[in-house]
Amino acid sequence: MxxxxxxxxxxxxxxxxxxKYESDEEIKKRKKNDAQLKSYCLMVWFLEFYGKIIRVKNxxxxxxxxxxxxxxxxxxxxLKETIFYVVQSKWNxxxxxxxxxxxxxxxxxxxxxxxxLNGEKLETKNPKFNESFKxxxxxxxxxxxxxxxxxxxxxxxxxxxxxxxSFQNNNPNMFVRIFDIDYIKRDFIDVHYKKxxxxxxxxxxxxxxxxxxxxxxERLGSHNNQIHIQNPFTSYIVLxxxxxxxxxxxxxxxxLFIENVRNPIKGSEINEKMQETLLNNPAFFWYYNNGITxxxxxxxxxxxxxxxFMVTGFQVINGAQTVYAIHSAYSKAAGAERKKMDQEVLITxxxxxxxxxxxxxxxxxxxxxxxxxxxxxxxxxxxxxxxLQNESFSTKYWYEKRKDEFxxxxxxxxxxxxxxMIKTFIAFFDLSxxxxxxxxxxxxxxxxxxxxxxxxxxxxxxxxxxxxxxxYTKVRFFLLGLFKLVMESYLGLKYSKNTDVVEYxxxxxxxxxxxxxxxxxxxxxNFIKTxxxxxxxxxxxQTSVTENQELKNLEFLLTRSLKVDDVESISLNEVKEAxxxx
Length: 582
What we know:
By secondary structure, this protein is of the alpha/beta class. The chain has 3 domains: 3-192, Restriction Endonuclease, CATH 3.40.91; 208-373, no CATH class; 378-568, no CATH class. It has helices spanning 3-20, 25-30, 34-49, 103-117, 127-141, 161-170, 181-192, 242-252, 269-280, 285-288, 320-332, 335-344, 357-367, 375-379, 383-392, 418-428, 452-468, 476-494, 501-510, 515-530, 532-539, 549-559, 564-568, and strands at residues 71-76, 82-90, 145-152, 174-179, 212-216, 227-229, 235-240, 292-296, 308-312, 315-318, 347-353, 397-400, 414-417. The strands form 4 sheets. The chain has a 5-stranded mixed sheet with strand order 6-7-11-8-10. A hairpin with a 5-residue loop joins strand 6 and strand 7. The longest helix is centred in the last third of the chain and has 19 residues, at 476-494. It is globular and about 80 Å long.
């Protein structure tokens, strides 16, 4: 999603805020000035989306003498510490969505923040500011933590990183954060398109394992119906009722499954069967269902009498389908049906204390071993996978690192599985067309140097090769590697041997200028048709150009006498032009 497109989505939300609060005096005052109105609505949006404040009252202190403090409010973090948030908000027009913030604006805000911390800020003629500022000063004097936030609908400016770090070094317990358009967009995608309802989006590093959650268990009149494993990691097996899982999903949504290998598959036959049992034969559910397995960061010692306890974090690593089915059935049920479900349905909960990244991953892997699993299922939370997905959010091709992780997809966005993209990437860069056909080991080739554009280009060329001629499906991965070699030779002859083929192709796709790409594809196809013997070698299971001498010969034959005109003279008149994904 381009920043300009996201800006438009956000702008629509700001317009809705203006309409929603049209009777508000602050809205009325700004109604004749669109820039002032949108600027104010952005602050309201921030408080609603990030602050979870239902009705904004005195948090906005924008006005004369506010010293870069447009918003002042407080919120508790997961450690039950009170954090004061001081926000400098900068609304800007859509044309600046892809431009960097002005460094001077950030530096001025830092200077104003320092004045506040030094105790040099005096009262102003702004009563809202004065009242909030008193509370802020008292909080600072009591060694309280403060988050200074710079909010902007443009891109972050790296040139101010040193200034921010210096400010934080000089002021312990004080933190500076930049909420630029890319940062906001990622959170917006998580909430609206992945349905990850994060309880506190303002946490500097949101970690679902750090939320304190109340677990209610069923004792069935007995004081000993739990299994307690003490070593090497504390674990319990207990019974719970549907109401608990319903309320957890209501509150946290799909964020309950972040550490799971996959999201629940909506509309599946298994899901429908579970719902049917819950609604029609609730007493049978425990016998038919394996229960759920969850990991928590901290577990207390449970007495045999305890019916309710707190855990820090709750991640369902096996049984997402069960949780989703219970939530769906409970949502459909009337009051009497819900009561019956809570009386008759029992769910086994295996609750483990986290043993670290490796242990947690292995538990996730082995507790899901009864299902057909792919390599991608266990790699979704790798740092490289997260980085590639974040990069994809600046394009119209979103990288799906977990099956069905996007609950909603905005118009104009194409979601592509990481497995598909990595396969085409491997073939395009001729790492191994044989490996590209396999399901395991694909993710081992990923490293920090891989650019998301490389994945996009590989995939788009693959699609265009399929569209232009589908008869080569069996050898498409091999031909994809040849495409890159021929395109490099062609660009080297036409422009320079130093031409970056990935950047060149990416720009062509962005401009929807596909003729050169199509002509290179047809050049390869036309040549292949004259050498069916070489094509047979590929079809019979040969691997890649670099692994087979015969196939090296094909590369040589395709490029040795290549001239620019050999490509450009190819006619596209008889070929239906490849349709863009846009």
